[in-house]
Amino acid sequence: MIELEISAACRIGCVRHDNEDMILVGHQFIRNDEYRTLLELGDGDRYMMAVADGMGGHLSGEVASSDVLHNLQFFFNDLPVGLDASSFIEMIMEWLESINIVLDSKGKANEQYKGMGTTLVALAYYEGAFYSMNCGDSRLYRIRNEELVQLTTDHSLSSLMGNKKHSSIITNCIGGGCTSSYIDLVQIEDIQDGDAFLLCSDGLTDMMSDHRLNILLTEGADANDLCNAAIVRGGFDNVSACLIKVKR
Q: What gap in Å lies between CA 69 and CA 30, rounded to an integer?
């Protein structure tokens, strides 16, 4: 049995007119709101936590992030029982192909949605195992013994080139005209009592350094506190955070 204490917040920020971010926590979809829950999970349970940062022009980014999270939630909860790690990963890869087709078809049917896409970062619990999922530049961090470590790699031009000059240019996403999207999907085997995990959009990490994030988390900040801190610093983008604390 494992216990998860979760806080999530999704804010529009100070500059954007629309909120293209969305968070999924179990069966809850969060946008322009915050959410908290405490739950216990056994070896036969499954639970999905994810952040999506949409893109693509007026309203289409909102649609992309929402479509992907709703589709993921349905697919994940409909997975067969008893999958081993390799089978689980294979089925998520198949889902990625199908959701790309869904977004592309929607864009072809309606010019308003042409080219829409979204990042996705997720922490999935499936039958006793945790998996990290990443497509784009939203991030998953682990906090252990007051040390913040990024577990995902940004799929961005700045990550490839080693500087922040091109920080807003991503090299991978779901939809967005990408015909060869990919997900970094890894089983997290080392889970300890007291670990915490942070899922977030770049609206958070563009506003503050990892060092500052670590200080806030060490001081006891929850997801809403993190979003508020990003907004105080300018809130140039939509900002989303989902903080998961683990007890074993």
A: 10
Identify each DSSP E strand in the chain by its residue range. Answer: 2-11, 21-25, 28-30, 33-41, 46-55, 117-118, 120-126, 129-135, 139-144, 147-150, 174-175, 184-188, 196-200, 239-247
DSSP 156: B
Q: Helices marked H in 78-201 — which ranges? A: 85-109, 157-161
List, in sequence order, the alpha helices (H) in the chain: 60-77, 85-109, 157-161, 202-205, 210-218, 223-232
Q: Closest Cα partner for 233 from 79, 9, 15?
A: 15
Tokens 């909120």 sit on residue: 19
Burial of 60-91, coded b for 16+ CB within 10 Å and e otherwise, reads: bbbbbbbbbbebbbebbeebeeeeeeeebbee
Token pair listed for 246: 């683990």
Residues 168 and 237 sit within 8 Å (Cβ to Cβ): no
Q: Give tens-digit pLDDT for 213-232.
A: 999 999 999 999 999 999 99
Question: Which residue segments constitute the domains of the chain, with CATH numbers given?
Answer: 2-247 (3.60.40.10)
| pLDDT per residue as tens digits for the range 131-170 | 999 999 999 999 999 999 999 999 988 766 655 554 568 8
Distance CA 149, CA 157 (A): 21
The number of angstroms, rounded, from the C-alpha of 8 to the middle of its chain's C-alpha atoms is 11
Instruction: State the distance between the two ends of the chain, measured CA to CA, in whole angstroms.
Output: 7
Cβ pair 125, 47 in contact under 8 A? yes
- Residues 181 and 109: their CA atoms lie apart, in Å, by 21
Q: What values do phi and psi take at 146, rounded to 5?
A: 65, 25
